[in-house]
Design a protein that fits this description.
Helices cover about 50% and strands about 10% of the residues. The protein is an alpha+beta fold and about 350 residues long.
Length: about 350
């Protein structure tokens, strides 16, 4: 993957409309491997060979998001083995999850898996041409180019988000517990309000860390953090100060000025250490290394060329059919040559 990176692999499979399984294995964690299923160049699923068969990634994600309990999943798993059906159908038949939620979670799982690949420091891959099976009832095929461009967008904006949310252990609270997002109506922030914000806002209780909010919202790491930052800028939410969370903890009395002074010294040392680590780990490049960021920038040029070539070809098709060239792209869109 260091010699032939992700930004080369996925577009190539998509452009050549290959059907098969792409397997990627992490250098740092030998047992970590993921698979992407392709059908005529479109991504139609993910698989995780290293996961235990009795707890696939879909079940893990649903349990982490609070949709399923471990007990309910075991019931669905037993039905899956007994009836020899897919995990998705087992969950649907038991009434534990509705179809729309399954479709959304499976799509989110594909995006999260692809996004996580760019955090790897290296690895190996192989593509095996073979027939793949998937249930179109639950799976929406995804363009590999679309997936890659979406990650490019995330990288461009992540540096700004990381400044506001430097850790997923960060806890946020509503600035005014009695206020709703309707407070944004009539302000400059109204046009930036999205349905996702309502979901996130309802989950903020002053105790949940950002990671838990991401898991429970099923919005995705990037979009959840981006919307949280918007609400912070709008003054609707704010970070919880250290030591003000309402959870009950045992307090150990440590009388004496010396102990108090030592405590202040340790807190200061810890704060300095965290700030130093954040600086030297090049957080602004997350989730890419500098080399991978350069590769991603390089891929934008050929992608733009592909888009330009498609428009030129569509223009020629329009000319052959109409015996004239189109005045603008909207005329081609009416005849639909751009999709051919």
């Amino acid at each position: 993957m260091k010699d032939f990176g992700l930004t080369d692999i996925f577009p190539l499979i998509g452009q050549q409309q290959k059907t098969g399984v792409l397997t990627l294995q992490d250098d740092q964690k030998a047992k970590r491997a993921v698979q992407f299923l392709f059908d005529k160049g479109m991504i139609v699923g993910t698989a995780f060979p290293s996961d235990p068969p009795d707890e696939p990634r879909l079940a893990q994600r649903l349990i982490r998001g609070g949709v399923l309990s471990v007990e309910k999943w075991k019931k669905a798993y037993d039905q899956q083995k007994e009836d020899l059906i897919s995990v998705e159908n087992a969950l649907l038949n038991t009434g534990m999850v509705v179809k729309e939620d399954l479709v959304a979670v499976l799509r989110l799982l594909t995006f999260e898996t692809f996004y996580d690949l760019f955090k790897w420091k290296g690895g190996i891959f192989r593509f095996e041409t073979k027939e793949v099976s998937y249930d179109p009832t639950f799976v929406e095929p995804i363009s590999s180019e679309h997936l890659l461009l979406d990650v490019l967008r995330m990288v461009d904006e992540w540096a700004m988000i990381a400044e506001r949310i430097p850790s997923f252990d960060m806890v946020l609270k509503k600035s005014d517990p009695a206020a709703t997002l309707d407070k944004l109506t009539g302000t400059a922030w109204e046009k930036m309000r999205m349905v996702q914000m309502d979901v996130l806002y309802d989950l903020l209780d002053g105790q949940r860390p950002v990671q838990e909010i991401i898991d429970l919202s099923f919005i995705g790491e990037f979009d959840a953090c981006k919307n949280l930052v918007v609400m912070m800028d709008a003054g609707m939410i704010e970070p919880v100060a250290i030591g003000t969370r309402t959870e009950k903890v045992k307090k150990i009395k440590t009388p004496g000025r010396l102990r108090v002074a030592c405590a202040y010294f340790l807190v200061g040392l810890l704060a300095f250490s965290l700030a130093f680590q954040l600086r030297v780990t090049r957080w602004e490049d997350f989730p890419f290394t500098q080399k991978e960021r350069e590769r991603l920038q390089e891929i934008q040029a050929p992608l733009r060329k592909i888009e330009t070539l498609k428009k030129m070809n569509a223009r020629e098709v329009f000319s052959l059919e109409e015996n004239r060239y189109p005045a603008n792209l909207s005329k081609m869109a009416d005849k639909d040559p751009l999709s051919r």
